[in-house]
Amino acid sequence: MKINIMTLMLMWMTATSTLSAQTDRTLTADEVAGLGKDLTAQWKDSVRTAYDEFYKNRILTDDPYFMILHWSILGEKPADGYALYISLHGGGGAPSKINDIQWMGHQGLYRPYNAVYLCPRGITDTWDMHFRPEDDAFYKQIVMMMVAFCDVNPDKVYIMGYSAGGDGVWRMAPRMADHWAAASMMAGHPGEVSLVNLRNTPFMIWCGELDAAYDRNIRCRERIAEMDSLQHTDPEGYIHEGHILKGKGHDMNREDTVAVSWMAKYRRDPYPKRIVWRQEEVTRPHFYWLTVPAGELAPGKEVRADIKDNTIALTRCDYSQLTLSLNDTMLNLDEPVTVTFQGKTLFRGKVERRLSTMRSTLYERNDPSYMFPAQVTVKIN
Asked: At what angle do helices 164-175 and 135-150 cross, to 10 degrees?
């Protein structure tokens, strides 16, 4: 059976079609909070309906690819929901049997506490098995499924991986930075990936001092220095740690397992006051509270935005327009909101909280933390 993410969109469209002008009235901040709980419960029901077979079979499919899943629930559920650790196995460009062995061995490699520990089997047997363009949709569906079925907190989702899995983390941590609470890369090669999207995603780097294959040790040292530089110029962002283990090769003798407790200290902030967003090789229209036109996506395009008081200041935007999704955590929506681009005012006024906006953003993003009651679209001159 092929996953069709449009199933959820159709459910939203059906629900929205019954929404009358009378029910889609302007909302107060208190009403948004109450309605948000109801809408989240409805959304979880829709995910459970759409994904019931996949959850039971522990496999996701999207022809011609499929992703087999193994997960364990470890410990007790915290009051705010389980954490989810997506852990990517080693292997890569090897026969299927070898990658199967790597995947099975990885299932007990780390032991997070009070969490769902999930190991996806790579969708190919190629070196890029964990970060192919098709992987983004699979990881999003994993998170959706675990939030709906296992009561995972969407703001406590972590990604980690070893060797080929580390290669995957190098790419997927920046590419999907707005999905992760933190990330940890073990013994992987960064290639030419950009790290600027990690401004709000704590990131750990682990490599053996003697892990010289493909110059992993050299490249990891360089990327630790790069993260140091990024944090030096933006001290409130780019939280990171880098560890080059003396005397260790590709096998770090499990010294990297402390990454689990390090990541657990962090929660995702879905509404950061500063966003740095650079499109990677797999482009996407959303990042945190920003949305850009789907027809203008291209690798390398950037947006940079800051919130201070009730003003959103855009310092860079490589698109013709930008949609800002807003809530009362970010701004005081009872007061006028101002949006500027390089000092020029693009918008100033009151914005309305609406039930239809909450519904559309929830089912568009399929993430309860990205359900917004208000939006503003500005044209960039």
From this structure: 80
pLDDT tens profile 133-153: 999 999 999 999 999 999 999
Q: Which two tokens stand for residue 167?
A: 């290669």
Q: Is the dihedral of CA 297, 134, 93, 260 positive or negative?
A: positive
> Taking Cα atoms as reference points, which of 105, 137, 133 lies closest to residue 119?
105
DSSP 271-335: S-SEEEEE--SS--SEETTEE--GGG--TT-EEEEEEETTEEEEEEE-SSEEEEEE-TTTS-TTS
Q: What whole-number distance in Å separates Cα of residue 123 and Cα of residue 61?
A: 10
Tokens matching residue 274 = 């500063």
The C-alpha atoms of residue 41 and residue 46 are separated, in whole angstroms, by 9
pTM metric for this prediction: 0.94
All CATH 3.40.50.1820 domain ranges in the chain, comma separated: 58-264
pLDDT at 25: 83
In the CATH scheme, what is the code of domain 58-264? 3.40.50.1820
3-state secondary structure of 267: coil
Q: Phi, psi (5° rounding) for residue 165?
A: -65, -35
Q: How many CA atoms lie within 13 A of 75 on its CB side?
A: 14
Percent over 70 (pLDDT), the chain: 94
Query: Residue 15: is its pLDDT beyond 60?
Result: no
CB 238 within 8 A of CB 227: yes
Query: Any idea which residue has 């990042």 for tokens?
Result: 287
Please report where in the chains the tokens 């690798």 appear, as a residue.
Answer: 299
**Residue type present at position 287:** F
- Residue 1, pLDDT above cutoff 50: no
Q: Using an 8 Å Cβ cutoff, are 249 and 240 in contact?
A: no
Between CA 286 and CA 7 the distance in angstroms is 20
pLDDT tens per residue, range 329-353 = 999 999 999 999 999 999 999 999 9
On whether the CB atoms of residues 105 and 158 are closer than 8 A, the answer is no
Cα–Cα–Cα angle for 283, 271, 138, rounded to 5 degrees: 40
